[in-house]
Design goal:
The protein is α/β, with parallel strands linked by helices and about 300 residues long. It has ten helices and six strands; from the N terminus they run H-H-H-H-E-E-E-E-H-H-E-H-H-E-H-H.
Length: about 300
């Protein structure tokens, strides 16, 4: 697959950074990084991450040094920042939350998950459902869902929506069966994968441990276990991969997990699910369609179109 979309976006964002902030390149200096968040969601998003101790994904190019306060990545290509920019109004406003959920399944009424609103970011579950070792920190070290929402169906049951957000990402299908520290990662998840009720069915468990399928596997297990534990009162779940339609390098790639059937990412992943309809691939544009009708968020919606072309 070619990488035309990735290259075009980086060039476009480089131009945008210069026109909007006078910055050369598509990475804002760390002291300016808060500006990657839209004006109407910046304060609330920063406060949310700060109050919950959630890790912003920073890389070496961000220029953060010890002692600096946590900020978002200044990379305009950050998928974490893109997720927050697209979903923060849904966290704060039930009308936006309803519009987002209706683009996934008609008739869903949004559930307020906590005092924080209708969205939780970097959710790792209320308990260590996957029995992962190490410290439990949202956004780091353990399996995190980029975002979760919950909707009530007309019959009164609740649907948990687990989001994974991608932007320019693509993968070479690297094996993930052993961590960089030499940990046998297969053994961590084997008990759940061998559970008779596991939503994933595969001839050999090791076949799953390739980018990006290993990540999808962990998120699927987490959504399943959250519902099993009754988190947010949900009795059903939907795993949603949000990725731009133009990112064909990710969407149409069958790289990695050579023993899984399918010619695309979605095809391969659905091939191992007991219920393939539990996995949905949608573009950011499709996900936020109709949110402008809520009125107060028109400036945000216009900004998304200008910044992300969504």
């Amino acid at each position: 697959m070619g990488n035309g979309f990735q290259l075009r976006e980086r060039w476009r964002l480089t131009d945008l950074a210069f026109d909007r902030w006078g910055v050369v390149g598509h990475v804002l200096p760390y002291e300016m990084a808060d500006l990657v968040l839209h004006d109407d969601v910046r304060t609330s998003a920063l406060q949310y991450f700060r109050e919950h101790g959630i890790k912003w994904w920073n890389g070496p190019a961000d220029g953060r040094t010890p002692g600096m306060e946590p900020r978002p990545s200044g990379h305009l290509t950050s998928s974490q920042v893109a997720c927050v920019n697209h979903l923060e109004p849904a966290r704060l406003d039930s009308d936006v939350a309803r519009a987002v959920l209706s683009n996934l399944e008609a008739g869903l009424t949004p559930v307020r998950l906590s005092d924080d609103g209708y969205v939780e970011y970097e959710w790792i579950g209320a308990a260590n459902h996957l029995r992962e070792p190490g410290s439990r920190s949202r956004g780091a070290n353990v399996t995190s869902l980029d975002a979760v929402m919950c909707g009530i169906r007309s019959d009164g049951t609740r649907l948990l929506v687990a989001f994974e957000w991608k932007y320019l990402e693509s993968y070479q299908g690297k094996s993930r069966s052993t961590s960089s520290r030499g940990t046998d990662r297969v053994s961590i998840y084997r008990p759940l994968l061998e559970d008779p009720d596991c939503p994933i069915v595969v001839e050999e468990i090791e076949w799953l441990f390739y980018d990006p399928y290993e990540q999808l596997m962990r998120q699927t297990l987490l959504a399943w276990q959250m519902v099993r534990a009754g988190e947010f009162g949900a009795s059903d779940w939907l795993h949603v991969l949000v990725v731009p339609e133009e990112n064909t390098r990710l969407r149409e790639s069958a790289a990695g997990a050579p023993n899984l059937r399918g010619s695309t990412l979605a095809g391969k992943w659905r091939s191992v699910l007991r219920e393939p309809d539990r996995f949905l691939v949608i573009s950011p544009t499709e996900l936020v369609a109709g949110t402008e009708a809520t009125g107060r968020w028109q400036a945000w919606r216009n900004w998304l179109a200008d910044t992300y072309l969504t």
